Amino acid sequence: MAAAAKPKNGRLCSICNDRRAALKRPKTLEQICRECFYAVFEDEIHKVIVENQIFKPGERIAIGASGGKDSTVLAYVLSELNRRHNYGLDLFLLSVDEGITGYRDDSLETVKRNEIQYGLPLKVVSYKELYGWTMDEIVKLIGLKNNCTFCGVFRRQALDRGAALLKVDKLVTGHNADDIAETVLLNILRGDIARLSRCTSITTGEDGPIPRCKPFKYTYEKEIVMYAYFKRLDYFSTECIYSPNAYRGFVREFIKDLERIRPRAILDIIKSGEDFRISASTKMPEQGNCERCGYISSQKWCKACVLLEGLNRGLPKLGIGRSRVLSNEPNKDTKQTNGTKNMQSKQCGTLDF
Amino acid sequence: MQLTLEFGGGLELLCNSVKIHNINVDPQAEEEKLTMKHLLPWIRTNLIKERPEMFMKGDSVRPGVLVLVNDCDWELSGQLDTVLEEKDVVVFISTLHGG
Lengths: 353, 99
Prior knowledge:
Chain A: Residues 323-353 are annotated as: Disordered. The complex is a heterodimer of chains A (353) and B (99). Chain A has 353 residues and is α/β, with parallel strands linked by helices.
């Protein structure tokens, strides 16, 4: 290490050579000051948006906002870039209330503050309204395994419902480079070829109800947190109480260890994911529509309908596990009970388009 | 040596939800300087009340925990070899939670 140099007064920013370096970028290993960091951070995201033609002027855009670090920084930066570069977008905050006490209620308070701080109108959709079940109620029924399966499936649809209510053209989410690298590895570990081929696309679902974009696809989580820290942005930061059991946690740990040894690994994994080609002889599921609610699905019933049916019939394992490809047996005998409605069951959302 | 420590990103939950700690630490007997390498185990012993594996892994912080000394990334000052001085502010931010 630099022998006599005091660490604090050590290095100058390698971009401006004027101010003191405040952080080391994992992407490039450059040592840069705060101001230059803000500039490259914002500028790189602007370039990603422009080069991938993510937006068109005049579009209404919903920002999936959880009150967490990624979505808060996304709302802040997108707002700023919209102004600075005249994207001409109408921005909204869209939040999902899964009904997780002590987690979601607190983070929703943060989104409500963001609504005021950034001047973006907020819409909240809840699992209770949409499905008749909160996550807390679901976990009481099914226990602590597989909760994330329910929550993830329901959340995707909830965002689509919310986006439809807001009449927006696109949905943006704060998924960052670390998240996408994790997803690539997760899909490899599970042999989910269909998802593997889609998960690195910066825009997905163009053939579905609402296209979704991930402007932070190449943005490192570390930089998002540093940006929020230096700019004193208000965000909520606690792990979901049900998440310790999620499979993704193992992959996250692995990626964090990799990042320490070779920070570029994260972008390189994404590149590998982008450049995968599926062998022509591999059978891929076809995308159609759910027979019950019309949502996009590669099976007869969409996952949300299957899960909901399981919950309402007290069969918490319905839709969980390996029965992926030819899983229509449960559906055959439940079709007869389609008309049964009890206080808690609701259709998982007919989308009117 | 007086130091101020800040825990963010959920790490404060490991220290009884207290975000800011003003502490007094003395360097090890034989060495004159206090480095992060010595401070970390001190923190684990004295401030971390639960789940120490969320804070440290091996000799260093758990991967995914960012460390800033006087608002500068500790990667710039040698990570564990960073030398601490009187009135320094050390910030630990966890990135390991939902976004």
